[in-house]
Write the structure tokens for this entry.
Amino acid sequence: MSKEVKLPFRLDVELTEVMRLRVQSLQQRGQKRQEGERLLQGNEAVYRLDFSNQSLQFSHWKVWLAQPGRLTIMGTSQLWTPDLTNLMTRQLLEPAGVFWRAAGDGDDAPVQCYEADADEFGERIAELAKVRKVMYFLFAFSEGCSPETVDCSITFTVDK
């Protein structure tokens, strides 16, 4: 019998602030970003997953949006070390996970997503968990979605 593990995405307040300060610093000095650098947008924040186990198989996403809106989750590759380097666009994984709730959806309606992309994204996260203890993500909030109205986790089965 397989054991399931649910991992919540956690806001990384410090890393989000560091990336916002990078944008602010460039603006204040009138400088441009490095070629290929991915700057944090105003509607984005950095989240993290901490893996306690490296032998995982993707099971499913659990995304809850309290109100209509869109959440886009972009993963970063294992090559990004946030304490050493700026985030580069080539270090963002594809596909992204896109989840939304439309204005006409009832409170009990499930959150919608591009299922094939979300499943492929979940499988890539499980693969990266084999070599990572922590993985970082950019959460982009739009169309009425905000960090306060989102709860997101990913469930894996543990390989034995």
Notes: The mean pLDDT is 92. The first helix runs from residue 13 to 29.
